[in-house]
TrEMBL record:
This is Uncharacterized protein. Residues 149-171 are annotated as: Disordered. It comes from the Bacteria.
Amino acid sequence: MNHPSQRDRREQALPALDRFFEQQSRGASLATQMRNDRVRDRLMEFLAEADMSRCLDLRENAQLAATRARGDGFFGVFGLEELLVCLVRFVDDDWLLEPVTDARAQVMLAGRLAAWLQRSGLLDRDLLGCAAYETEAAVEAARVALGSSRKEPPAADRPALRLIRGGRADP
């Protein structure tokens, strides 16, 4: 398997995010485009400022702190794989936009971004581990907490995840 270099992964991150948000806003109403812009701005603020201790390990947090101290951003040291991992934190209550309609848009776009990244071919799957599942679970929990119903059915090519306890699947 041909793995992109760490530098290549970082350099493709911002253009990939631009592409994603452009695709999400294409053909949308002006109000939706503006809401998507607010979510993108919030994501950039999150990547520039957020405490990532829940999603990155100690070494990675130290790298991020040093990068931020130099004035570089998240993508100065990390790529899209780490972004996917950190989306778990982006849908936490303390980072959700106000009003609730913007928060719902943020959660929806975080879920779509996670799915888009997984389908894009831009991720090095060897670096992901369970990040995709953890992100999906965090997005679903945020969606439920906001009282918004899931409008998109689960992908047909992927079975629903269920916990197995004592040899029996939870309903």
